[in-house]
Amino acid sequence: MATRGNNRNNGFNLFIKSTCVLVGLGIAGYMWYRNAGNEERDADEELATNEKKTMMQKHSSIIILSTSLLKDTSIDWNSILENDCVILVMPGLKFDNLANINKSYKYKIIHCDTMTGIWSCIKHLRLNTLYYIKEELGPDYDDISVDLRNIFTTIRILDVDKDMNMQLT
């Protein structure tokens, strides 16, 4: 009889062990299946995000706000800031039109204390287009378009005698 009981225990132990192995394989297979789908989805989401960033950068711009732009009351700053645009305020100037600007755009206006601060912002933001009035930057910055052509695809020098609103849009 002793051998018969051992055979029953051996059969039961074999059943338990095989069930555990099958459950383990099932869980491992499910985890592999879930993760394989996530990698594919993550790759698709990353591709879509990169395409969106590229599209946004194609239409992004920086405006160096100088005295003439500040005094021009015909410029609709809300419509300009509605697009992907950043305004860098030159040292010594204060952009007082903040009360008229939509609160959700105020973070796009950066007051710089020095010209070095402006160039640092320009280089770090790396947007697509730069707008500025050449005469108002000073003689030290006559050939900045040469220095910045590696950063911007388009550099637009604004003409003080023409309608600023038309030139900025």
TrEMBL record:
Subcellular location as annotated: Peroxisome membrane
UniProt keyword annotations, A-Z: Membrane, Peroxisome, Peroxisome biogenesis, Transmembrane, Transmembrane helix
Membrane-protein topology: Single-pass membrane protein
Coiled-coil ranges from the UniProt annotation: none
Membrane-traversing stretches: 12-33
GO annotation, cellular component aspect: peroxisomal membrane
Similarity comment text for this entry: Belongs to the peroxin-22 family.
Functional note: Involved in peroxisome biogenesis.
Protein name: Peroxisome assembly protein 22
Gene this protein is translated from: TPHA0H03030
